[in-house]
Amino acid sequence: MDLLFVTQLFPPETAAGANRTGAMAESLAKRFRLRVATLEPGYPDAALYAASDWRTADGARGFAVTRRPAFRPHEASLVQRALREIGMSITLVRSAGSRADIVLVSTPSMFLAPVAWMAARSRGARFVWDVRDLTWRYAQESVRTSGLQRALLQQLEGLMLWLLQRSDLVIAATAGLASVLQRQGVSADRMVTVPNGVSRAWLEQCAPLAAGGPPSGGRPRVTYVGLMGYNHGIGILVEVAAKLPQVDFILVGDGPERVSIESAIRKAGLANVTLAGYVTDRSRLLDHYAASHVLVNHTKDTPVLNDIVFPAKTFEYFATGRPVVHAGRGWASDLLRGRDVAEVVVPGDAGALAAAIERVLADPARARARAQRGRELVEREYCREPLLESLTAEIERRFARR
């Protein structure tokens, strides 16, 4: 069967969305005639990617990859951003051609879904939606909006729920997200949960780190790796660093909040916070993990984030065997606390987060035991290949021609 996979994010980008779609494509290509329609690599900056390198990689993948120019989504106006994303979505789907038995779209770019749904229906194809988050709800909870904007966002949410209820299959990226979608009317028998995870290769690469434990001697190091986005609230680490001058903080990544974080560091005059930038080289990323004593997460406290988010970076953190401190509320925090794999505190409280880091550093034996349980959890339940092999088999079972 012909399967068209439409996604904004794809390797060689290395953020969570691209890691997920890249692994998904590799699995799907084993059972379907796969075509991927995506954008030229551009996150967080197109200059990070040499065109000759990614074009060579695309040609060696074993399935067709078509690309449109890279897209920079961040705009001051919600309306401007929406219009640009709609234009990007139409161009991306049109570039994919007309042949497809199944159209699979992976968001967060929410407007890809309605455009891909219309394309699927016009071609008589099945429509599968890989839902990584509820972008339309984030905008309502995290951005200051006018009355008209709120009304438009509510209408948009209604459209997205209508599409979800009419999808042939919905793939939820977290169990919390699946529960929310079921409450909103998406049929459980047309939904599967496929969490993010880490590859077998990453587990193997991290095995020496996990076996050796954190470095001895020198100043303790706390590391954050990932997006500096509005939902993450990573700026709080500047306040935490001010409370822990004996600890070095390394922030690896980029995103819309980076500028404000840089400003806060300068204003506070802190010498123990370093912004290491976005890393595309996995060996350099391993070096950051190897030098770390604690890895940290923070997710803002909003109803939708509490309901659905399980930070994808957590699985990568656990694979390294380093102790993790997680600040958040909701089902993900409850799971981490219940499995006793991380130090869990409430979000938005710099004092609580600083105290949690101090507790981890003060009791290395307990921290090491938790870290080991975290790695075992990922090995057992969140290894990416078995999860995606099961998904591919499920899509084939549901939609194979009889």
Written overview of the protein:
The protein is of the alpha/beta class and about 400 residues long. The protein has two domains: about 1-195 and about 385-400, Rossmann fold (3-Layer(aba) Sandwich); about 200-380, Glycogen Phosphorylase B (Rossmann fold). The chain contains 17 helices and 13 strands. It has helices at about 15-30, 50-60, 80-95, 110-120, 135-140, 145-165, 175-185, 200-210, 235-245, 260-270, 280-290, 305-310, 315-320, 330-340, 350-360, 365-380, 385-400, and strands at about 1-5, 35-40, 65-70, 100-105, 125-130, 170, 190-195, 220-225, 250, 275, 295-300, 325, 345. Helix 5 (about 135-140) packs antiparallel against helix 6 (about 145-165). The N and C termini lie close together (about 10 Å). The model has no long low-confidence stretch (mean pLDDT about 90).
Identify the notable features of this structure and list them briefly.
single chain; 402 residues; alpha/beta; Rossmann fold; six-stranded parallel β-sheet; globular
Task: Lay out the secondary structure.
Layout: E1 2-7, H1 16-28, E2 33-39, H2 51-59, E3 64-68, H3 78-94, E4 102-106, H4 112-122, E5 126-131, H5 135-142, H6 147-165, E6 169-172, H7 175-183, E7 191-193, H8 200-212, E8 221-225, H9 236-243, E9 248-252, H10 258-268, E10 273-277, H11 282-290, E11 294-298, H12 303-308, H13 313-320, E12 324-327, H14 331-339, E13 343-345, H15 350-362, H16 364-381, H17 384-399
Parallel strand pairs: 1-2, 1-4, 2-3, 4-5, 5-6, 6-7, 8-9, 8-11, 9-10, 11-12, 12-13
